[in-house]
Amino acid sequence: MNCPLHCLLGGSLLAAAGLSAQTSAPVEWGKFRGPNNDGSVPAPQVSNWKGARVKTLWKAETPKGFSSFAVAGGKAFTLVTGEYDGNSGEMIVCLDVRTGKELWSKPLSIIGKYDGGGDAGTNDNKGGDGPRSTPVVDGDKVYVIDSSLGVHCFSAAGGDLVWNRDVLKENAGVQIRWQNAASPVIEGNVLMMCGGGEGQALLGLDKTSGKVLWKGEDDKMTHATPVVADLLGTRQCIFFTQTGLVSVLPESGKVLWRQPYRFNISTAASPVVFEDIVYCSAGYGVGAGAYQISKSGSSWKSKEIWRKENDDFANHWSTPVVKDGHLYGMFSFKKYGEGPLACVDIRTGDMKWSTPGFGPGQVILAGDSIIALSDKGELVVVEANPRKYTELKREEVLEGKVWSYPVLAYNRLFARSTTEGVCLEFQ
């Protein structure tokens, strides 16, 4: 579990960084989809979104990648494409949250060409523009899964390698088209991932050493990052594999329940949990569905509530957020620059409203507001209100292709594209 920065350093670094400890926003966002594993955080200190000014505190180069930021310990981590030993490859980069200056970087893997993508340009919509997985900060370490299923653990302070593991070689890993995009998920002492071969597709690794703590199942991996959630009083990790949804106990890998779900070409959005409902969605004509999970004694069951097999309900790679039983997110497939931000009732599948002009960007939930980042680099703040679309703020903040999640930490918004990363302040 991450300790807030003022807990680790008595507030001294916060003061030096000029970052306020007196904030309603979470101090850190050290893991994919935030401190609550669901893309939600308390609201930032903004009295009036419509009158707020968005100030750019710094910009930094973040070439060719769809990795989001992980922000903790006064540092912002992401994956980019760089050059080392004369080869193009993936790198983890550590930036100072105060200035955006690079503190350290380390090579991960050599990627000559991404399967199915190649060397896509800045403004087209092909794949292949660099790493897609997001680092995870846990304590004084930072963890990464690269596109070739290499798992790496570094010292967050200086980038010293603690351990790494080659899942392709050591666990008979099975690669997929466009390579890995899933991020590490850590619960307690266990780093969980999908990508091993037959009988060891789901893996639980010791976060201190990289050794296998548990393994099992035959599920083939997808691009979707698993999600940890409390469901019916039980902490569990829900994977979204080519077989469908599969829930396991983090400490042992024991399967609790399964829900078959169709796979076609790529599944990339994570499952979403609300009360006893688990929602999932994919592109390529697969669409969305919601499932009610029940438990009787030690027996778990999944029952379909609703299913929409069309691209109007597709979350291509953009995982929605949920508030008061309503999903808010980018619902479309390959409608770049045009796809809508929409609101869907998670209990019934009814679409409450849909507003075009976002494309396959990303959203987070900040208090009662949706902070959306369009694929064109527009920051849009919208009320989390199922009755109507109410826009509070819109401003262009990034150049390049934007397929990564914005991150709210230290009362600042961190976001990136395939060309640049920014740190924004709301005034």
Can you give a write-up of this model?
The protein is mainly beta and 427 residues long. The chain has a single domain (5-426), classed as Methylamine Dehydrogenase, Chain H. The chain contains three helices and 33 strands. It has helices spanning 5-9, 12-17, 167-170, and strands at residues 40-41, 54-61, 70-72, 75-84, 87-96, 102-110, 136-138, 141-145, 150-155, 161-166, 185-187, 190-194, 202-206, 212-216, 227-231, 234-240, 244-248, 255-260, 272-274, 277-282, 287-296, 299-308, 321-323, 326-330, 341-345, 351-355, 362-366, 369-373, 378-383, 391-396, 407-409, 412-416, 420-426. The strands form eight sheets. A five-stranded mixed sheet has the order 1-27-28-29-30, with no helix packed on it. Strands 2-33-32-31 form a four-stranded antiparallel sheet, with no helix packed on it. A four-stranded antiparallel sheet has the order 3-4-5-6, with no helix packed on it. The longest helix is centred in the first third of the chain and has 6 residues, at 12-17. The radius of gyration is 20 Å and the shape is globular. The two termini are 31 Å apart. The model is unreliable at 1-18 and 20-24 (pLDDT under 50).
